[in-house]
Amino acid sequence: MAVTIRDIRAILTCPGQVNLVAVKVETSEPGLFGVGCATFTQRAKAVVTAVDEYLKPLLIGRNVNEIEEIWQLAYGHSYWRNGPVLNNALSGVDEALWDIKGKMAGMPVYELFGGKVRKGVAAYCHCDGNSKEEVLEHLQGYMEQGYRYVRVQQGAYGGMMNGGTMKNGAGPLIDPDTIRFFHVPEGAPQGAYFDPKRYMRKTLEMMDYLRNKAGFEIELVHDVHERLAPIDAVAFAKEMEQYRLFFLEDILSPEQISWFRMVREQCATPLAMGELFNNVNEWMPLIEGRLIDFLRMHLSQIGGLTPAKKLAGAAELFGLRTAWHGPNDITPVGVAAQLHLDLASPAFGIQEFAGFTENEKAVFSGCPEFRDGYLYVNEAPGLGVDIDEEAAAAFPYKVYDDAWLFSRLPDGTSVRS
Ligand code: GCO
Ligand code: MG
Questions:
Q1: For residues 394-416, b (16+ Cβ closer than 10 Å) or e, as one string?
Q2: Which ligand is nearest to the CA of 325?
Q3: pLDDT, tens digit, for every residue of 65-112?
Q4: Per-residue pLDDT for 203 more than 60?
Q5: Residue 126 among the catalytic residues
Q6: 400: in domain
């Protein structure tokens, strides 16, 4: 008698700075359930609706063993190709089904993917500061914690003044400091102002300083976060080549990926892209053309472990590596799902990691552990992470502070973040 899906529900909780969505899939076998990650923090409530109103009625009663069948059915059932909301909802069910399959097999999920090709997963963390000196100080701190890979930024993304974000939306005109600092026109609206050319200059100065002070042993990454005009991105990648980055991330927006060819023809700075991708048509040209080096997809944004497993295979065949997206807008279940894939992938590159707050560890048991530069799963069958729904309810949804997403150029032009 096949084990079937008995119930599916989305669990929305905000134990840290951002809204997290987990999905619990309960089965016809008493006590057998799975948990997956469906976190799209800027649109968490839309994902909850997609899970509870669309996937639940579609999938209840189906055989939990048939993960690929369920993924293809759920993906195609919307007819129009999935975007970020539906992909996240599908990811929550998909990862929960892999969790269930591991529990039924009595094995951690990495065993189902062919077993470990490494004993620990090397991680990188985020290092920021308002000056190159402050970035160096923080970098040295992370190196003492055992990190051998560190992302370095000076002033968040785009080098925003003092790394802060302006108040967003309507309201009084922006403060006098911003007006002076960015020389904005009269009547300029609120926003997170940044100056692309200043950002380039300050970041190159920072990199030069860090390499002079910290040397080339420490692997550094930097995230441009789509803040440059394409031709400036080409120049920036070329100037960064001397600093031997582990990778330079999101130098272009998803709408401008055709410019990657020009970058590739002019420099050997390793390139990373993918956290904003939802659809195979976005990443295939970059993989086929070997136009980037690291795949940065957010697993729930592309539909979960099932598509990510295929992407890791494509990376191996085309000479790319994985660097799954994983700052603070992902549940510990989602982190564990990435790690199980990282442990079994020959094409693994590096894993982004933002740590867990004490409240997140109170809501999610079995969180992966960081020790001396490496991440470890807890070896329990499945993904190894569970959610305490009562504890989750104690941290209700918070309106997302999206001020940093109202990015503006010095003349007030609104740009993507
Ligand atoms: C990264 C990302 C994040 C995103 C965030 C958006 O490389 O970790 O760029 O910092 O900005 O995930 O919600
Ligand atoms: Mg990024």
A1: ebeeeebeebbebbbbbebeebe
A2: 1
A3: 999 999 999 999 999 998 999 999 999 999 999 999 999 999 999 999
A4: yes
A5: no
A6: no
Query: Cβ(275)–Cβ(251) under 8 Å?
Result: no
Tell me, yes or no, whether 94 and 118 share the same domain: no
pLDDT of residue 186: 87
**Is 394 within a domain?**
no
Is 157 part of the annotated catalytic residue set?
yes
Question: Stretch 253-281: mean pLDDT, rounded?
Answer: 97
What confidence tens digit (pLDDT) does each residue in 273-330 have? Answer: 999 999 999 999 999 999 999 999 999 999 999 999 999 999 999 999 999 999 999 9
Q: Going by CA atoms, what residue is nearest to atom 8 of ligand 1?
A: 327
Range of the domain at 68: 5-108
Mean pLDDT, the chain, integer: 94
Q: Which of 126, 225, 298, 325 is catalytic?
A: 225
Q: What is the pLDDT of residues 379-405, one digit of tens each?
A: 999 999 999 999 999 999 999 888 888
How does DSSP assign 279-339, residue by residue?
SHHHHHHHHHTT--SEE---GGGTTSHHHHHHHHHHHHHHT-EE----SSSS-HHHHHHHH
CA of 276 to the centre of ligand 1 (A): 9
Q: Are residues 206 and 249 in the same domain?
A: yes
- Name the residue of 152, 275, 416 whose CB sits within 8 Å of the most ligand 1 atoms, as the mutation to test its pocket: 275
Q: Could you tell me if 289 and 162 lie in one domain? A: yes
Nearest to 32 by CA among 51, 52, 59, 6: 6
Asked, for residue 79, whether it belongs to a domain, the answer is yes
* Structural domains counted in the chain: 2
Helix (H, G, I), strand (E, B) or coil at 188: coil
Query: Domain containing 178 — which CATH number?
Result: 3.20.20.120
Query: Terminal CA-to-CA distance of the chain, rounded, Å?
Result: 51
pLDDT computed for residue 209 by the predictor: 98
Asked if residue 84 and residue 205 are part of one domain, the reply reads no
Q: Is any atom of ligand 1 closer than 6 Å to the C-beta of 41? A: yes
Separation of CA 223 and ligand 2 centre (Å): 5
Q: What is the pLDDT of residue 181?
A: 81
Ligand nearest to the CA of 273: 2
User: Can you give the pTM of this predicted structure?
Assistant: 0.96
327 CA distance to ligand 1 centroid (A)?
6
